[in-house]
Amino acid sequence: MGKGGNINLFPIRMLITLTVVQLLMAAESFGQDNNPITFMDQNKTSLNFVLSSVLTEQEKFYPQQKFTCKEYYFGTYVKVGRSVCYGNPHKIIKLVNEDIKFDVIKPEQVLRYLQKENFIDVETGKIRVDQDGIPAVKLFYGRENQREAFWLIFKLVKTQVVNAHVPVYRNVPPVYLLFAVMDASSGEIQSIDMFGQAQDDPQLLAVKLLRKLFLWQNANTADKIAMLQIVTEMRSPVAEELAIAAINSNEDDLIYAGINVLGWLGKKSHLYLIDKVMSGNDETRLRARSARAMEQIGHNDSDAREVIFLAIFHALKQEKNPEVAAAMMLTVQNLRQQKYGLSEDQYGRISGDIEAAKQKCMRDLHGILHS
Question: Are residues 178 and 306 located together in one domain of the fold?
Fold first, then answer.
């Protein structure tokens, strides 16, 4: 433990100092499609990376703020570069320098370490993936109590079987475990073997830190979502606690992430909380996702199905949005193994005659609940 009860992630120091390199990024050009990022080492040798090879570009709509942001992620969870937010494609309303948060050790130094550990080929900029395209490593950057900054490096240890015949969200998440900790001020590495010599188990220590940061009131939504996903992929029981906290928040994106986790956990005891979102939230995507989370719970626990059918029966009678109604009906259709005329592709897109399906579904539910 550090001073004041803080968790000390660096009780043991390895005498590893990574080569310090400088990231040269043109602020005005960064963020354009396929623009190369140039790293330069101490010998002034430039290595060009195509943006799409090193980073993941995502365009996210934030409904509460009513704007869309083009963002770039390193190692799945770390936002880098410049995020560009706009109300429409021609009006930029916000520019965010994501790199300002980094301490001395920035993404390029981490890349060097990942290359050393054979997670990445720095010459091509590609992170190694398994046969299903799952990245071999994921990263999280954080700061404890605004002081000690660190990089957490997680290694893929098990990929679940991917079923191409069901929607992506219904596949079980892969398993990641802590591989190493990098001090963001010095670049020193705490490998998992040496980290294990500490008093606490390294995996439990990492989860303890992520839980503390998640519950810290100043943590931003994007970091909270990342932390929730990480502890879920670590198969920690803390994921349940954080998912419930997420659903009880007032952040739509965080609520959505919490619903995803509770759906995957598949516990009947979570149905009441999910039904509150499905029946009472104003946001279309949250109500629809809640209905599909109920399906996941129903597949995991057949005893939960009667509760699910009752909740959907009452909610469907009042639901005016066809997207949400379709999600509710497809949940019942799949759990009942009946045909209401709806179909779904692997990306969760639903098609069919909504009104006709609703009549069939309501008749079926009425018969189940009143038999």
Answer: no
Is residue 184 within 8 Å of 190, Cβ to Cβ? no
229, 271: one domain: no
Looking at the structure, do residues 271 and 230 belong to the same domain, yes or no?
no
Q: How many domains does the chain have?
A: 2
Encoded tokens for 77: 């969870």
Range of the domain at 299: 266-369
Residues 295 and 226 in one domain: no
Which of 235, 258, 284 is where one domain is finished?
235
- 247, part of any domain: no
Contact predicate 107/187, CB 8 Å = no
- The pLDDT of 285-311, averaged and rounded, is 94
Q: Please, which residues have CB within 8 angstroms of residue 21's CB and are 6 or more apart in sequence?
A: 39, 40, 41, 42, 108, 109, 112
Alpha helices by DSSP H, 234-266: 238-247, 252-265
For the beta carbon of residue 163, count every other beta carbon within 10 angstroms.
12
Question: Residue 191 pLDDT more than 90?
Answer: no
Q: Is pLDDT larger for residue 138 or for residue 202?
A: 138
Q: Strands 137-144 and 78-88: what pairing?
A: unpaired
| 46-49 sheet: strands from edge to edge | 22-24, 37-40, 46-49
Q: What is the pTM of this model?
A: 0.79
In the numeric block, the tokens 């970091």 are attached to 223
